[in-house]
Specification:
The chain is mostly helical. 67% of the residues lie in helices and 0% in strands. It is built from 62 helices and no strands. α27 runs parallel beside α29. The chain is extended and about 140 Å long.
């Protein structure tokens, strides 16, 4: 071989199999190692010898898979050491003649060529020798291959290629670094490029390997090789092409390439920006398709890494980068937004800047913020989320606050709270939370109380008003000049390259020259704290609101101007500046508070979201508001209480976040755990600066205040929370003692405070009844109940609730267990005498009914024989109610006060057990019921009616309120007696079970047969107990000879059935409620009288009574479903009630009964469907919840769909078309979703492919629906029905040819309806939907025929309609012509009667 041409060798190497070697060596020969040793020795002796032994090295590299690793290692060592020696020799001969340099050139090219070839060959060697990290390859059969031994006894695993890479690339890098001095002497430009490309090829080859690039040593050697080539060998153009190509196909190179650019720029020995600039330039002009996710993701990640590692380069080229904000690919837009965030963070934290640079940076930062704000309205939810996350990170990490930008953030976040995507809403809440926690308004040590800031604003306005007379127009003129300067500055900020104006922006330092920019807003703010939405960017509005426009400085009188300037100079300039800045500062704070408070109502709604991360963020937000004492936090804190019932307490996966550990930790918790943590932090954990006594008082006060104005639902949720906190040991004994001190205080405390104390104590008693309520504290409760409880019946009621906890009946019972751990007291205990006194009190307050209910509950919860005490109470109340009173005993004042109270009271009597019910208008008297219903009652009812009429006619002096008290107690005692009988039955079974267990233990040695007989005896005994209790319930409670309750049944029937006699509102409500409870006792009584309840529901004008009846019907249906099932249609009557409370209760009761299988749907599902579009949001949400749960039952929606369509489309129950379409659109979504889920679950359980079954099920349903709807066209006569049927057809997916063919087959049924525009447009929608289907079996021919049939049908229908109109016109014309030919004989005589007839027709 006489010469070596690098270009030809590189070209020949592209086809390795045909690569020529003049004197090849057989690597499998036994003598090859000696040949290699000689070649290595020659190179080691002189680097010039590489040319003579070139074929030996080429023979090894051509077949690397056939040689031992030790040979490859020796080859590499020889080549790298030879290259280093040759490099030193070349530099030493730098001044020699060209012949010497040409010889060095040839040797350098050979070394570089062989090393470059070696890097490629090492990969092939690796495929034989195993993974370069030392892991073993598994052979067939699962066993790992043993390391292949070399001929010298070595192991191939003793050397790995990855360890040799840094040294190899370092040798090439040194060549690129040191040869720049002699490169021009040795190579022409094309030859030099070939040499550099060959030398850098190993670096680009190694960059493709993700494992190699994870090694810091390898990565550093790659970077420095490329950097030296770029800096000294003009390699930047080729590097740009190679890097762009590599990034397009290898995602792992995004961060390394950004690091490479950073080294080139930041390392002093390189200081080279061209590669970074060229990369940005090229990426900024690239078009990223939305479906090209791989390359887009790689370049997007590079942009982000570049902004993080090389922010100064990004700052210079940010305009180019921002071009990709308009890219069609949302990952690229996300990357640019994140890059902007890194840039803002870097620029805002750079303190080593001059004043001019700081001004320019501020302008650039504001422009960047503007770009972020623009993309809060991006089409992609991922982009909107990223903008919010970036802004939140900037608020936390950037010390410079930028108040104006923060106001825009708050405004944008409030808007995005209504976004349709949950992740966007979640990040909007997180941004608002971060804004509050990092707010710059620290005048009052952090809190953001509107009243405090409004008061400060009023003070500073007064202070300015005092300064105004001294300054005259000078102050206003300075404000105008400041505004003018600000406008100029904003115009200059539009230029992103030049930044803002020349003057320094000192807003954050408290020396802003534009301090009065918000003065116009500040002066116009409502000092009373009314919310408004100021717009800080509308300067024209502010100028228009000023009383007059001031003259320019050039048009003023110079003497006047000089005098004003002298006045300003005479005033303390520091004080003036401080006042102006303070006003601006407070104005911005109030505006910020306004934005946050406006977002509160929407976030309160989001607490009910189904997205858990969204709920967690909302909880965190309200905790922050409570910490900073902001208005609106109370609503959120109360709404959060209901989350205590959340069952999902598992860890929650984090969504798009900002990477903060605290946020991830928060999202990792369950909703319930996070709720408890929030309440512990807000109300139980001690705060700094308070002594132990103060801490206890604070905690007790917080607990009591939770009960103020709380609804029943809120109290129930609070009760569960207090129980958990008490169980977990977070409530200290000192706090319990303080609550007792408040409750038992002899001082006249506010009623709410004393009530709250016993309510919280009762809640704590759920967890530890004897520790909290036991011992001497029972006497304390009885004493308070007999003293303060006389005047405050609500206090006495909650005291009764606390007493109930003593029995331990609230302890959660194990399902299926008969064990009863309740504690009962003898009837001579003082508790019962106090309760009897309360029940027999002569109070005339409506609060007595709630107290009486809880008193009866307490008697039955604690008493051993509660029926004895209740019997005495009922007898006493009966005597009092039916004892004739003389007129002198009646207190006219009390009667007048009662009548006045009834007239002025706008609320309905809250006789139902839901104290949180909404008020309803007062009931109107005079309801008339069917008298025939009274014949169903026993004869006693007729006698009672006769007595009542006789008493009424003889000026009866009975008190209806006392009778209402009696009936209320009777009804509740009856219901509690039924529960008590169930407890007795359970106790008997428990005793029998214990006896049986003991008997089995004693008889364990007997035969198995005898044991089986014993089991049968035990089962019969339990059946006998159940039968006995059933007999007592049916025969003795309401029909026994000795039953006291039996006397009141006919009375209740009579009173409820005679509203024209018993007109008192309270009496009717109490009687109806008690009658409803009686219906739950006996099937016989229910069968005789339940229709009266339906009649009351129909005729009663009292919404509160109707609401109670609806709830009672649900209970009766549960108890005696077979009786109510005959008239189940009546249960749906409440859905059409005008009162929303009655409608809501009806919907809840029906939901419970239907979903639990207690009643069957018989064509009434359409009434429930109407509620989907109810104007009351609560009713609409409940209806949606019902259909969601109902759809999980087998084919429930599918089977009832025809009835729903008919119910809503035609007949007396039909709704308007818009409502029909919205309702059916919601219902049709369950036709596909639920079946898909069910079949997927089925197939997963049985290991079969669920996709085909899902598809078959959905299409089978769709096919049947299409067929049924097409058949409806035959019987539909009204155009409204046609339109409704066509709309329902358009809601189906038509994903398969079977559904389409069914529709095409049904063309004859609706061909004559196609002239209706709506029907034709719906069919066109279906056709378009079918053609969009990408199925390979799409019936194109049938679709074309279908389209033709539609067009023909429409044309034929239009022609038929036109003909029909012409026929009608001709008939009308013929009739008119016939009337004109009528003779005039007798016309005048007939004219008058005919006119009279027409007038009579008009009257009719």
């Amino acid at each position: 071989m006489t010469e070596f041409d690098l270009q030809e060798e590189v070209q020949a190497l592209t086809d390795l199999d045909s690569y020529p070697i003049e004197n090849p060596s057989d690597v499998d020969s036994p003598d090859f190692e000696s040949i290699l040793d000689d070649a290595v020795q020659q190179v080691a002796g002189s680097s010039d010898e590489i040319f003579s032994v070139l074929d030996v090295f080429r023979s090894v590299l051509k077949k690397p898979e056939d040689v031992d690793i030790s040979i490859m290692s020796r080859v590499l060592d020889s080549l790298t050491s030879g290259l280093s020696a040759e490099l030193e020799a070349t530099l030493a001969d730098e001044q020699e003649d060209s012949e010497v340099l040409l010889r060095h050139r040839r040797n350098l090219e050979i070394y570089v060529f062989l090393i470059s070839w070696y890097v490629t060959a090492a990969d092939k060697c690796k495929s034989v020798t195993g993974d370069e990290t030392g892991t073993k390859k598994k052979a067939r059969g699962g066993k790992a291959k043993a390391p292949v031994k070399s001929k010298k006894g070595g192991s191939k695993a003793s050397w790995t290629w990855i360890e040799a890479v840094p040294g190899t690339l370092k040798a090439l890098g040194q060549a690129m670094n040191k040869l720049h001095r002699v490169a021009l002497k040795m190579w022409t430009t094309p030859e030099r490029e070939t040499f550099v490309l060959c030398a850098t090829k190993p670096a680009y080859h190694i960059m493709k390997n993700e494992v190699f690039m994870k090694s810091q040593d390898v990565k550093k050697s790659v970077f420095y090789l490329i950097c030296y080539a770029i800096k000294h060998q003009a390699h930047v153009g080729h590097a740009l092409g190679n890097i762009l190509q590599l990034m397009q196909y290898h995602e792992h190179l995004s961060d390394p390439v950004a690091e490479l650019v950073g080294i080139l720029i930041q390392d002093d020995q390189f200081d080279h920006e061209q590669l970074g600039n060229d990369l940005i330039q090229d990426i900024s002009t690239k078009h990223f398709a939305p479906n090209d996710q791989k390359s887009t993701k790689s370049f997007a990640r590079f942009i982000v890494a570049l902004g993080e590692k090389v922010p100064m380069l990004v700052k210079k080229r940010i305009v180019l980068i921002m071009n990709q904000l308009d890219s069609e690919s949302y990952p690229m837009r996300i990357a640019v937004i994140e890059c902007i965030g890194h840039l803002i963070r870097n620029m805002a934290s750079n303190e080593a800047m001059s004043a001019a640079d700081a001004t320019q940076s501020t302008g650039t930062i504001r422009n960047l913020y503007k770009a972020l704000f623009d993309h809060t309205l991006d089409l992609s939810s991922y982009v909107r989320s990223k903008v919010l996350v970036t802004l939140a990170a900037l608020c936390r990490e950037v010390e410079t606050k930028f108040p104006k930008e923060r106001l825009k953030m708050a405004q944008a976040s409030g808007f995005l709270l209504e976004d349709k995507v949950a992740s966007v809403r979640k990040n909007a809440i997180a941004l608002l939370n971060t804004l509050v926690r990092t707010h710059p308004y620290v005048t009052h040590d952090g809190p953001l109380e509107r009243d405090v800031w409004q008061r400060d604003y009023e003070e500073v306005v007064k202070e300015i008003e005092q300064l105004q007379p001294q300054l005259g127009d000078a102050l206003n003129r300075q404000d105008d000049e400041a505004d003018s300067d600000k406008e100029q500055e904003d115009e200059m900020e539009v230029d992103k390259e030049d930044g803002s104006g020349d003057e320094t922006d000192k807003e954050e330092e408290g020396e802003d020259g534009n301090a009065d920019e918000l003065e116009g807003e500040g002066e116009q703010m409502d000092v009373d704290g009314e919310e408004r939405t100021p717009s800080p960017s509308k300067k024209k509005t502010k100028k228009e609101k000023r009383p007059k426009k001031l003259a320019r400085r050039s048009t003023m009188n110079p003497e006047q101007f000089a005098a004003e300037q002298a006045t300003v100079a005479a005033l303390d300039s520091d004080k003036l500046t401080a006042v102006r800045l303070r006003r601006k500062y407070i104005s911005e704070a109030i505006q910020f508070i306004t934005y946050i408070e406006k977002a509160v109502p929407q976030i309160v709604l989001l607490l009910g979201s189904t997205n858990k991360t969204e709920v967690l963020e909302a909880m965190e937000f309200f905790s922050t508001l409570e910490e900073y004492k902001m208005q609106g936090s109370e609503d959120g804190i109360r709404r959060m209480l209901h989350l205590i019932w959340t069952k999902d307490n598992a860890a929650i996966s984090t969504g798009a976040g900002d990477g903060k550990d605290t946020e991830k930790e928060s999202e990792g918790r369950g909703v319930r755990a996070r709720l408890l943590e929030c309440y512990r932090t807000m109300y139980f954990e001690p705060i700094a600066g308070l002594d132990p006594k103060g801490q206890v008082n604070r905690i007790a006060k917080n607990m009591v205040e939770r009960t103020y104005e709380a609804t029943l639902a809120e109290l129930t949720s609070l009760e569960e929370m207090m129980r958990i906190l008490m169980d977990d040991g977070y409530v200290r004994d000192e706090v319990v003692g303080k609550l007792w001190q408040i409750y038992s205080s002899s001082r006249p405390l506010p009623k709410l405070q004393r009530r709250g104390a016993i309510m919280i104590l009762g809640m704590f008693g759920l967890a530890r009844p004897h520790a909290v309520l036991g011992g001497d504290r029972v006497g304390v409760m009885l004493k308070v109940m007999s003293t303060w409880g006389k005047d405050d019946l609500t206090l006495a009621k909650y005291t009764c609730v606390a007493l109930q906890r003593l029995g331990g009946g609230s302890v959660k019972k194990v399902k299926g267990s008969l064990e009863d751990k309740t504690r009962r007291f003898p009837m001579d205990n003082p508790i019962f005498s106090h309760l009897q006194t309360i029940l027999l009190s002569t109070s005339r307050s409506k609060e007595w009914f709630g107290l009486a209910e809880q008193a009866v509950n307490t008697i039955y919860a604690l008493g051993e024989h509660p029926e004895e005490l209740c019997e005495d109470v009922m007898r006493t109340l009966t005597k009092r109610a039916f004892t004739r009173k003389e007129p002198l005993d009646v207190k006219p004042n009390d009667v007048e006060m009662k009548e006045k109270e009834d007239k002025e009271d706008d609320e309905e009597d809250k006789m139902d057990e839901d104290e949180s019910s909404t008020p309803a208008p007062p009931a109107r008297d005079g309801s008339v019921l069917d008298e025939n219903l009274l014949s169903q009652a026993p004869a006693a009812a007729s006698q009672a009616k006769a007595d009542a009429e006789s008493s009424n006619s003889s000026n009866d002096l009975g008190d209806p309120f006392e009778l209402a008290q009696l009936l209320f107690v009777v009804g509740h005692v009856a219901l509690k007696q039924l529960v008590f009988l169930e407890l007795i039955e359970r106790e008997w079974k428990r005793q029998k079970d214990a006896q049986t267990a003991e008997l089995k233990k004693n008889e364990k040695d007997k035969k198995d047969k005898e044991g089986e007989d014993l089991d049968a005896v035990v089962g019969n005994a339990e059946d006998e107990i159940g039968d006995r209790m059933h007999a007592v319930r049916e025969s003795e409670l309401l029909f026994g000879d000795k039953s006291l309750l039996a006397l009141y049944g006919p009375m209740l029937v009579h009173i409820c059935g005679s509203p024209q006699i018993y007109k008192d509102k309270i009496l009717r409500a109490a009687a109806t409620l008690s009658f409803s409870k009686f219906l739950c006792l006996s099937a016989q009584f229910t069968d005789q009288n339940y229709r009266l309840l339906f009649k009351l529901l129909e005729k009663s004008r009292d919404a509160n009574i109707r609401s109670n009846i609806v709830i009672a019907l649900g209970d009766v249906a549960v108890s005696f479903s077979t009786i109510i099932d005959e008239d189940s249609d009546e249960l749906y009557r409440g859905l059409n009630d005008p009162d929303p409370h009655v409608k809501k209760n009806s919907l809840m009761v029906l939901t419970h009964l239907i979903l639990n299988g207690m009643i069957k749907v018989k064509g009434q599902l359409g009434e429930l469907a109407k509620c989907l579009q109810d104007p009351d949001q609560r009713i609409s949400d409940l209806a949606k919840l019902f259909f969601t749960e109902f759809s999980t039952k087998d084919n429930a929606i599918y089977n009832n769909l025809p009835d729903v369509i008919s119910h809503l489309s035609i007949g007396e129950h039909a709704v308007d078309e818009d409502t029909f379409q919205e309702t059916l659109k919601y219902i049709f979504q369950f036709i596909e979703k639920v079946r898909s889920f069910r079949f997927s679950h089925f197939c997963c359980c049985f290991g079969c492919g669920g996709t085909h079954l899902d598809y078959f099920s959905q299409e089978r349903q769709a096919e049947n629906i299409v067929e049924k709807l097409c058949q409806r066209f035959k019987t539909a006569e009204e155009p409204r029905q046609w339109r409704d049927i066509a709309f329902c057809l358009s809601l189906l997916p038509f994903k398969s040819e079977r559904s389409v063919k069914k529709l095409i087959e049904g063309v004859p049924t609706y061909r004559d309806k196609l002239h209706e525009p709506s029907v034709y447009s719906r069919m066109q929608e279906i056709l378009s939907k079918a053609r969009q289907n990408k199925s390979p079996n799409k019936p194109e021919t049938e679709l074309n025929e279908f389209e033709q049939a539609l067009n023909e049908g429409r044309e034929q229908g239009e022609e038929d309609q036109a003909i029909a109109k012409r026929v009608e016109g001709k008939k009308a014309a013929a009739a008119r012509k016939k009337g004109g030919r009528t003779g005039t004989r007798g016309g005048r005589e007939k004219a008058a009667p005919k006119l009279q007839e027409l007038e009579e027709d008009e009257d009719e």
